[in-house]
């Protein structure tokens, strides 16, 4: 057998291949493999940051929606303040109740705006007491729903529904069952000067 010597070109080639493979293995093991681990850590960090960014973008979009909604409400308040009278105006409120009653098919039996103020009542309110009647209970319900949507903010603090007896209506000839409702509450006035 031939002795292994470094002068042999075959041996040199094998040694160089082994050295290159060892360097490549060491390079992969000590330099590239830790980079893969670091890349995975960075990917996880990027994913967390992307989730935070998505949350912030959603919050920013929601903020824009909330600001737009706030602006819409401010515009609505401004419009309502232009509509609402700055002082008590029984004639105006009475007209609105008359229109609502006619629209809903009820008749107003009494409508008053008492001057008494209960303790702790703000200065910018007007109390009202109204009694309405109709042959149909649905008409009274429509009337109640309609005053709920008045441009003024109305707080109804008393509602008494009564199932009436057989009565004659205005005109005197028609007989029928009459439903009536006693409603009292508060109308808030405009704050504008």
Describe this structure as you would to a colleague:
The chain has 193 residues and is α+β, with helices and mostly antiparallel strands. It folds into 2 domains: 83 residues; 99 residues, Alpha-Beta Plaits (2-Layer Sandwich), CATH 3.30.70.60. The protein has 3 helices and 4 strands. The protein has a 4-stranded antiparallel β-sheet with strand order 1-2-4-3, with helices on one face. β3 and β4 form a beta hairpin. α2 crosses α3. The longest helix is centred in the first third of the chain and has 75 residues. It is rod-shaped, with a radius of gyration of 42 Å. The N and C termini lie far apart (119 Å).
- Mean pLDDT figure: 79
Helix content: 40-55%
Report strand %: 15-25%
Low-pLDDT sequence parts: none
What brief labels describe this structure?
single chain; 193 residues; alpha+beta; Alpha-Beta Plaits; 2 domains; 4-stranded antiparallel β-sheet; 4 strands; rod-shaped
A few lines on this structure:
With 193 residues, this protein is an alpha+beta fold. It has helices spanning 9-83, 90-104, 137-148, and strands spanning 107-112, 125-134, 154-168, 175-188.
């Amino acid at each position: 057998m031939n002795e292994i010597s470094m002068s042999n070109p075959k041996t040199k080639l094998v040694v160089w291949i082994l050295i290159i493979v060892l360097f490549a293995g060491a390079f992969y093991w000590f330099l590239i493999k830790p980079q893969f681990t670091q890349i995975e850590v960075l990917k996880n960090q990027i994913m967390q940051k992307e989730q935070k960014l998505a949350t912030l973008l959603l919050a920013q979009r929601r903020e824009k929606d909330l600001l737009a909604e706030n602006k819409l409400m401010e515009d609505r308040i401004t419009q309502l303040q232009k509509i609402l009278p700055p002082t008590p105006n029984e004639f105006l409120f009475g007209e609105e109740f008359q229109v609502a009653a006619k629209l809903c098919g009820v008749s107003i039996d009494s409508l008053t705006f008492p001057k008494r103020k209960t303790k702790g009542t703000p200065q910018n309110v007007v109390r009202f007491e109204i009694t309405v009647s109709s042959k149909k209970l649905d008409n009274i319900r429509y009337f109640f729903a309609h005053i709920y949507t008045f441009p003024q903010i109305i707080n109804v603090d008393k509602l008494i529904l009564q199932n009436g007896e057989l009565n004659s209506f205005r005109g005197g000839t028609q007989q029928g069952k009459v439903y009536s409702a006693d409603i009292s509450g508060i109308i808030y006035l405009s704050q504008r000067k």
